[in-house]
Design a protein that fits this description.
There is one protein chain. The protein is α/β, with parallel strands linked by helices. It has one domain: 3-Layer(aba) Sandwich (Rossmann fold), CATH 3.40.50.720. Helices cover 49% and strands 15% of the residues.
């Protein structure tokens, strides 16, 4: 599996699954764009990764920053071959304790952000006659998750969005697929109370959390030439936590 000569955009790439994904693409020869709201951390990771990696500020909840990001790409980086929408955010909280601002953030980061960024970059892929889009959803979007009701809805939306878009853009040699992680050992999960983390491990048949690199491997497969005839698919990487179809 090689991405030599390819330019790959990874959102949420300053830490967690996004960072592991950026590292994996770079290791396979890609020029990686580390897109993240945490600009200083993104720049530090780009310098550490090397191999032509660049950091560009991006807040997927702000339309004007998505537009600025797309312009910076066009002016300074060039054509994008792969878009990996990895950025995500959530917090365990009972639905009746959610407020409207919480809902807006959850939906903005996890659903509308990927939708809007994809819309901004898709014309370039169509113009060049090909590309790969990999969206990161969650097993919460497949089967639901206690205390993450709106998050589950937003992630389910990403699954439907991926399938619908895959049908629209297949004729342009663009594939769209979706990776659904289960509980993963990331800085975001580290903020969850320990009792919840222990419950996640107990509920997982393989009795551990996923490593970010294990999610990254699935993303790379969907982005690869080897997966050129695979589109509209959803892959759970959860140690058997959710086995529903």
């Amino acid at each position: 599996m090689s991405f030599s000569g390819k330019t790959v955009v990874v959102t949420g790439a300053a830490s967690g699954i996004g960072l592991a994904t950026a590292e994996a693409f770079a290791a396979q020869g890609a020029r990686v764009v580390i897109a993240d709201i945490a600009v200083e951390k993104a720049q530090a990771e780009a310098e550490r990764i090397g191999a032509g990696a660049v950091a560009i500020a991006l807040d997927v909840t702000k339309d004007e920053l998505i537009a600025a990001f797309a312009k910076t790409l066009a002016d300074g980086v060039g054509d994008v071959d792969v878009l990996a929408n990895v950025a995500g955010w959530g917090k365990i909280q009972p639905f009746l304790e959610n407020d409207a601002a919480f809902w807006d953030t959850v939906v903005g980061v996890n659903f509308m952000g990927p939708v809007k960024l994809t819309r901004a970059l898709l014309p370039g892929m169509i113009g060049r006659g090909g590309g790969r889009i990999v969206n990161v959803s969650s097993d919460a979007g497949r089967v639901g998750s206690l205390g993450e009701t709106v998050y589950s809805g937003a992630k389910a939306g990403i699954i439907g969005f991926s399938k619908g878009l895959a049908r629209e853009v297949a004729r342009h040699a663009i594939t769209v697929n979706c990776v659904c992680p289960g509980p993963t050992d990331t800085p975001l999960l580290a903020k969850v109370p320990e009792k919840h983390q222990e419950a996640f491990v107990r509920a997982t048949p393989m009795r551990r959390l996923a490593k970010p690199s294990e999610i990254a491997h699935a993303i790379l497969f969907f982005a690869s030439e080897e997966a050129g005839f695979v589109t509209g698919q959803v892959l759970s990487v959860s140690g058997g936590l959710a086995m529903a179809g």
